[in-house]
Amino acid sequence: MSKDHDHSELSETALRVKALESLLIEKGYVDPAALDELVDTYETKVGPRNGARVVAKAWSDPEYRKWLISDATAAIASLGFAGRQGEHMVAVENTPNVHNMVVCTLCSCYPWPVLGLPPVWYKSAPYRSRAVIDPRGVLAEFGVKIDEDTEVRVWDSTAEIRYLVIPMRPTGSEDMKEDELAALVTRDSMIGTGMALKPGAVGR
Ligand code: FE
Q1: Which of 6, 30, 135, 192 has its CA 20 to 30 A from that of 92?
Q2: Active site annotation includes 70
Q3: In 3-state terms, what secondary structure has residue 38?
Q4: Are residues 171 and 86 in the same domain?
Q5: Catalytic annotation, pick one of 60, 108, 157, 189
């Protein structure tokens, strides 16, 4: 099982990174604040912006949407987003009847090329266990209220398959262009623990 989830490799890598980081800080080569900034950039900015472009294209282009749903790996790679931890992608689409959310129950498998680094809560034991047992309760904690009639589907990521949620296109976004639409797509909406922003919620 640990091989499926790259467990040992990840923890060993994490350990080396930690050791290297301590050494660099001790020698005064790097500023810890700058490192935090760098991590934040990859967690919340660069990574998820790739996924947002994929979603915005799927919202705007019906042919691309079909391709994304039938062969996400190829459709995503066509935009230049490919590589490690994104070799076998599956896109799952939210509809008024189905809400999808993604977890890795064993560790922290996550689609790096489209979402960057996983957030701390995604790797936490409570999220990993409760997402499966009580998905609606977890969603409520994220401020996401799902209709009683809407089915919640939970997808367990592995080293084999990484999931990307295609959130529902928000009402009021009908006339928006692809790059404007991308600004509505949050990281959490692509994990399924959030919704896409409403057009008015984005500062211009
Ligand atoms: Fe995992």
Answers
A1: 6
A2: no
A3: helix
A4: yes
A5: 108
